[in-house]
Automatic annotation (TrEMBL):
Catalytic activity entry: ATP + protein L-histidine = ADP + protein N-phospho-L-histidine
Residues forming coiled coils: 339-433
Pfam families: HATPase_c (PF02518), HisKA (PF00512), Reg_prop (PF07494), Y_Y_Y (PF07495)
Protein name (record): histidine kinase
PANTHER family listed in its UniProt record: C4-DICARBOXYLATE TRANSPORT SENSOR PROTEIN DCTB (PTHR43065:SF46), SENSOR HISTIDINE KINASE (PTHR43065)
Keyword line: ATP-binding, Coiled coil, Kinase, Membrane, Nucleotide-binding, Phosphoprotein, Transferase, Transmembrane, Transmembrane helix, Two-component regulatory system
């Protein structure tokens, strides 16, 4: 058993103990006025703060109510819930079915409810909703609303026999006979459904009086006859200034005559029927001249209207200045005045025309005389103009030639300055690499002599010491270090061009073919090698081992630039360079060359890196992962072969190395 309290929430009694639920447990307010269990077993609590749904575990507060003070609750036959609120009328909660979204509908005094303070509710046997308020009881036609969407309320007050007027909260019930009992402030009122019969008799309407400016009138002034039945004037025609008219009428209904209501319409003035009103009179002011018919209908307390309206016709006569004959007289008078004015205007224009023609003739003679003077002046001006145009054309031609010569000199000077800067940059780079080569060569030569001595003494010591001695192992490490040092000094000697080479007539294609197997082993499976060799390449004068070293170093450099794999391209081409070609290829010279191209799809290099890659010991790799001598060694070998190397690279777009080796004269 559940109990709602005033300020203490709700309490549940299980036969032994009480369990209390308040806002701490999720209830929307602690003042509970009504409790309802729906067909799904959920409990609903109407409070001063809204409605809470309880599924046995948690409370859920429903939003979108018309008012949050909920005093009464009902469930209809379809499972929808009706909430009576104090100040917000009735809210209907449309219980969501499968695939639907929950929604609320509101019914207030704007829709026809007599009062928005709802104190009690009950359904009768026909499914109509009875709503108890502070101003009586209303019956809402739920079935009609479901079919048509119209909100139809029937009110029961003192006139209908509901004497108590002000209902008590939730003091309502329906007995076994279908009659409904209402508890009011002073008494109990019983509604007997079988005695409630709608009044289907149409009321009878009559127009009882006609007034001008709200006062009674002696109609003999305006008409010769008055209807004996209604007392109204027959064939009434009023002057234009008697246009403030009041109609008095009555609707006769013997059942609750106080509930009779009216609608009226003045044809010729109103477009639509008036709104429903209780007043039995209506006034029209400032009516314009014209013919009118006043119509009125009435309905009883059960909204039964009489089908045939009561009519009264009359007319308001326009003043003389708004009659047709006055308009015709004004039109004729206006036409005569306009005709006279037009004739006067024509005579005046004719006189001005003659005067103007005389002036034009005189002016024409003067213009002819002036024309002769102007023609003489124009001839003189034309001669001056021709002379000026000739002088301007001569001067313009001279300036055009001078401007063309100036543009040519500027372009040649700009080109010469660019060529000068290019040559200076190449010269500085060559001097820099030459200086580095001399320094590296001198150091490498002396250092190689020292390494040779150390290596010799190490071999002698190792022969005299037994292999089982720890010292023999240490001397082996010294020997290995001297071997690596010798390799480095040999690479420096190659860069400084002090290394002795054995030059022979060499086919670069054969050199590349000999290296393919080793390259595929060193480069790995994640890099594809694309070989494009020139058919019948020119022979070059070179050292095969050193050329192999160049190809190997460039290929390994490309491999390191593609840590995630990619494509390595090796090409050979026969190239003949002319003087014009040397302007765009750095360090080049005219002649015939074999071009060896090595390209990768790696990370690329910026401009600063490209400027420094051929310097000894320069490397972009981490410390300990390279000597920085691979490209500098290749550079030294190519220089010893009287060739050069160009680099083309952008960050993220890979690099291209082009090696130019002079073709042998035997070709």
């Amino acid at each position: 058993m559940w109990f709602g309290t005033n300020g203490g929430g709700v309490s549940k009694y299980d036969g032994v103990t009480f369990a209390n639920f308040t806002t701490k447990e999720g209830l929307c307010d602690n003042t509970v006025s009504s409790i309802l269990e729906d067909r799904g077993g959920n409990l609903w609590f109407g409070t001063d703060g809204g409605v809470s749904e309880f599924d046995g575990k948690t409370f859920t507060t429903k939003e979108d109510l018309s008012n949050y003070i909920v005093l009464s609750m009902l469930e209809d036959g379809e499972g929808n819930l009706w909430f009576g609120t104090y100040g917000g009328g009735v809210s209907k909660y449309n219980y969501p079915r499968k695939g639907e979204v929950e929604s609320f509908e509101t019914f207030t005094s704007r829709d026809g409810l007599c009062d928005d303070a709802v104190l009690s509710m009950v359904f009768d046997d026909a499914g109509n909703l009875w709503i108890g308020t502070n101003k009586g009881v209303d019956r809402f036609d739920t079935s009609g609303y479901k079919k048509t969407g119209k909100k139809i309320f029937k009110h029961y007050g003192r006139e209908e026999g509901f004497i108590g007027i002000e209902c008590n909260q939730n003091a309502v019930c329906k007995d076994s006979k279908g009659d409904i009992w209402f508890g009011t402030v002073k008494r109990v009122v019983k509604y007997v459904s079988k005695n409630d019969r709608p009044n289907m008799v149409e009321p009878v309407t009559h127009i009882t009086n006609l007034r001008l400016f709200s006062g009674d009138v002696d109609w003999s002034i305006y008409t010769d006859s008055v209807s004996k039945k209604s007392g109204l004037p027959v064939g009434l025609e009023l002057p234009y200034n008697q246009n403030h008219i009041t109609f008095d009428f009555i609707g006769v209904s013997l059942t609750i005559p106080e509930k009779v209501r009216y609608r009226c319409k003045l044809e010729g003035f109103d477009k639509n029927w008036s709104h429903i009103m209780r007043e039995a009179h209506v006034t029209y002011s400032n009516l314009p001249p014209g013919k009118y018919t006043f119509r009125v209908i009435a309905c009883n307390g059960d909204d039964v209207w009489n089908k045939k309206p009561t009519n009264y016709s009359f007319a308001i006569i326009p003043p003389f200045w708004r009659t047709w004959w006055f308009y015709f007289f004004c039109m004729m008078a206006g036409t005569g005045i306009i005709y006279t004015l037009v004739k006067m205007r024509i005579r005046n224009l004719e006189r001005k025309r003659r005067i103007l023609e005389e002036k034009v003739d005189m002016r024409t003679i003067q213009l002819k005389e002036e024309k002769g003077k102007v023609e003489k002046i124009n001839e003189a001006l034309k001669k001056i103009k021709d002379e000026l145009e000739m002088r301007v054309e001569e001067r313009t031609s001279e300036l055009r030639v001078a401007n063309k010569q100036l543009k040519k000199e500027i372009a040649e000077r700009k080109k010469a300055e660019e060529e000068k800067e290019k040559i200076q940059a190449q010269f500085y780079q060559a001097q820099k690499m030459e200086s580095i080569g001399r320094l590296a060569g001198g150091i490498a030569h002396d250092f190689n002599n020292l390494l040779t001595a150390i290596q010799g003494y190490t071999y002698l010591s190792m022969k005299k010491i037994d292999r089982s001695e720890p010292l023999h192992k240490y001397l082996g490490h010294v020997r290995d270090a001297t071997v690596r040092g010798t390799d480095l000094t040999n690479q420096l000697l190659l860069f400084s061009r002090r290394h002795q080479m054995e030059f022979t007539s060499l086919n670069v294609n054969e050199t590349v073919d000999d290296l393919l197997k080793m390259l595929s082993y060193l480069i790995g499976d994640d890099i594809t090698v694309d070989i494009n060799l020139q058919p019948d390449p020119w022979m070059v004068w070179g050292d095969k081992g050193n050329i192999e070293q160049v190809i190997m170093n460039l290929a390994l450099n490309a491999r390191d630039a593609m840590p995630k794999g990619g494509k390595l391209t090796i090409e050979t081409q026969n190239v003949t360079l002319k003087k014009k070609d040397c302007e765009v290829i750095p360090e080049s010279r005219p002649g015939r060359f074999v071009c060896l191209l090595v390209a990768d799809m790696g990370i690329g290099m910026d401009g600063e890196t490209v400027q420094n890659i051929f310097e000894p010991f320069f490397s972009t790799k981490e410390v300990g992962k390279g000597t920085g001598l691979g490209l500098s060694t290749a550079y030294g070998i190519i220089k010893q072969h009287e060739g050069w190397i160009n680099v083309y690279s952008e960050c993220g777009k890979g690099s291209v190395f082009k090696v130019y080796l002079p073709a042998h004269s035997t070709n």
